[in-house]
Amino acid sequence: MPGLxxxxxxxxxxxxxxxxxxxxxxxxxxxxxxALSKLLDIELFLKYEGLNPTGSFKDRGMVMAVAKAxxxxxxxxxxxxxxxxxxxxxxxxxxxxxxxxxxxxxxxxALGKLAQAVAYGAQIVAINxxxxxxxxxxxxxxxxxxxxLVNSVNxxxxxxxxxxxxxxxxxxxxxxxxxxxxxxxxxxxxxxxxGFREYRTRGITDTLPxxxxxxxxxxxxxxxxxxxVDNPETLATAIRIGAPASAHLARAAVSExxxxxxxxxxxxxxxxxxQIAREGVFCEPASATPVAGLLxxxxxxxxxxxSRVVAVLTGNGxxxxxxxxxxxxxxxxxxxxxxxxxxxxx
Length: 346
Ligand code: F0G
Prior knowledge:
six-stranded mixed β-sheet, four-stranded parallel β-sheet, alpha/beta, binds ligand F0G
């Protein structure tokens, strides 16, 4: 498959001057989840965004945002990030020969994501604050200096990210009944809603899904109906965000689609994380949040039997090895002889 700028060219703000940037992002698999479908009494598909080139959905928006930055003559890009945005920005900047600066919350970014930003050659600034602090700093820097901001407040990011909705409709032949996804800074839910609506306007789908956005309980301003949460806390560090920049768009997506916001505790998130892994699919903790939410709503009798649901698994499990291992039994160490191995496995 070609990259997104080529595959969905007619739907994207591409001109003759937009570079043909691609790391073969997008075209990720929609994986049926038989065990969870049975448990939830629905037809559940997992949109496995962890198979993008840098291991998260951020590549969709970043290929568009960096291509436009190049088109506009930028030589430096900047972003705040809980990790995945920085990995994607660093990769596409490296590919385009741009300098990349990332601000991250010190101590609250998964190891794999940090390793990616380092390897792709970004300049990393770990601030003594959270994502919300980092975002306001980079917004100010980009206003006052000739540096392109590539957070999802950059509208090209949402343009690129809406292509995930296109892929789901292209594959299922229609929109699902429900689209469930994790919500942090609230760009992705807004981008999906834009994508589904655009496909309907163009007559490619007649129906639209209900948008179900799930937050971590310790970082859930939208689910709690608040403007912001001051000290967001969750082990799902990707969505450890207290003041979502696209809250207004996300609220519109939920209300226009007849959807909902809800939240899951860290324990519920990790329980869902293992249930997804037992289907053979490994995602990072934040990505398990929508499945945790579906399990919760099913238990409350709020999930209509037989619904066709797509849960977006936004990032790859390999990005966050520490969280995986913290919650797993360590392997049993035995002597390297047949007797000891057999005694353990039989
Ligand atoms: N899932 C993962 C794995 C993420 O990395 C993010 C956001 C989200 C869900 C939430 O998406 O912000 O569009 O609502 N990560 C950003 C980052 C904040 O810096 O990588 P959102």
